[in-house]
Specification:
Radius of gyration: 22 Å
Strand order of the largest sheet: 1-8
Number of strands: 8
Shape: elongated
Strand content: 5-15%
Largest sheet: 2 strands, antiparallel
Order of helices and strands: HEHHEEEEHEEEHHHHHHH
Structural class: mainly alpha
Length: about 290
């Protein structure tokens, strides 16, 4: 399936959810259980788009004990921006084409990264929809139950409220760490038809999904020295703490993609950049004979 087909399929599903699915709140109940005794155990872990958040990447690359560069190249596919540069790249888990398009983390006894499984996997069979945007924060949020006739887990007797299920699956921690990404994704700049240049999209991808590369970008250059609102203690946390680095990444992206004042360039750096720009506009000095 091409990127365009994938995105069209997602948009169609969103429209169907908003139009047809019953809207649930945290006090509503549903029945579900997934275990090896269920006849369809593991079948939902194949030929499916599992989109990953930046926090998902952090959890999975740590669980696998590999750099984020290696994780991305081995286990993910990237949805490409459209031709007009109005859509940012996203990543999905790369299904194993040689094994009936199964998730690469699915073993004989179930998920091999269960303790660090992504948010989308933890939520199943629940979904969450939002009509909120940065421009319209009053928009509605609600839960819905995925209408999957092949899932026998929905016939199991175990009953939960949505709040109970969220707590049992460890989703609350993921929600906390996904919030900066969620807030940034709802930025009004994405809904104004703004065109993003290739360099901006590359920076977005690095900052969101490749924390090890972003850390090298921050520390293997003069990056830190350019800003006056970064204190030494904060910078030290970036060296070891992926979550702190992730939070900073969204401040930086607001600065470089939308021109917000989340970071403040040092006056001397700004002056140097302005002088350089003036020289470039003026061109080389010509001598008169």
């Amino acid at each position: 399936m091409t990127d365009k087909e994938t995105m069209r399929r997602i948009e169609n599903m969103k429209d169907a959810i908003l139009a047809d699915y019953p809207r649930l709140n945290k006090d509503d109940k549903f029945k579900f259980s997934c275990h090896p005794g269920v006849s369809c155990f593991g079948e939902c872990c194949g030929d499916v788009n599992i989109f990953l958040t930046p926090y998902d990447v952090i959890r999975l690359k740590k669980a696998l004990d590999i750099p984020s560069d290696d994780f991305l190249s081995k286990y993910t596919l990237v949805t490409q921006p459209d031709e007009e540069g109005k859509r940012v790249p996203m990543i999905v888990i790369k299904m194993d084409e040689a094994n009936n398009k199964r998730c690469p983390f699915l073993g004989e006894n179930g998920c091999t990264v269960y303790e660090d499984r992504p948010w989308a996997c933890r939520m199943y069979p629940l979904g969450m929809a939002s009509g909120k945007t940065d421009a319209h924060p009053e928009g509605e949020e609600f839960f819905f139950l995925l209408q999957d006739e092949s899932c026998m887990g929905l016939q199991e007797p175990d009953e939960f409220t949505i709040a109970e299920y969220i707590k049992s699956q460890g989703i609350e921690e993921f929600d906390i760490h996904n919030e900066p990404f969620r807030e940034f994704s709802l930025h009004k700049g994405f809904n104004m038809g703004r065109k993003f240049y290739p360099q901006q999209l590359q920076m977005y991808f690095m900052a969101c999904y490749n924390p090890d590369m972003f850390r090298r970008f921050v520390f293997n250059s003069s990056f830190v020295d350019k800003f006056e609102n970064l204190d030494a203690e904060q910078v030290e946390r970036f060296k070891e703490d992926d979550i702190e680095l992730m939070k900073f990444a969204f401040e930086w992206l607001r600065f470089v993609m939308f021109g917000e004042d989340t970071l403040k360039v040092k006056p001397e750096v700004l002056k140097e950049q302005q002088e350089k720009l003036l020289k470039e506009k003026a061109g080389p000095i010509k001598t008169v004979k």
